[in-house]
Amino acid sequence: MPRQRRKADLPVKICATCARPFAWRRKWSKVWDEVRYCSDRCRRERKQGFSNETEQPLE
Questions:
Q1: Could you tell me if 21 and 12 are in contact, meaning their C-beta atoms sit under 8 angstroms apart?
Q2: Can you give the pLDDT at residue 10?
Q3: Considering the entire predicted model, what is its pTM?
Q4: Are 35 and 28 in contact (CB under 8 A)?
């Protein structure tokens, strides 16, 4: 059985929407190079054109 990795040893990226760090997840193992957002919420907000959480959508 392989040794388990500590969470601190996992790769980290910065979310393109909220600028918070997020760690590698097993479900992202095949597409880690393509992952840009920490959550579905951040991905949706980026597509809608929000500049940040406090402002209205850009028109």
A1: yes
A2: 84
A3: 0.63
A4: yes
Structural tokens at position 57: 């959508």
* Cα separation, 59 vs 43, whole angstroms: 18
The answer to whether residue 18 scores a pLDDT higher than 90 is: yes
List the beta bridge partners of residue 21.
Answer: 14
Q: How many residues does the chain have?
A: 59
* Amino acid letter, 13: K
Q: Which one, of 22, 46, 24, lies nearest residue 33 by Cα?
A: 24
Q: What is the mean pLDDT of residues 26-43?
A: 92
Between the alpha carbon of residue 58 and those of residues 1, 17, 25, 50, the distances in Å are 51, 15, 32, 6
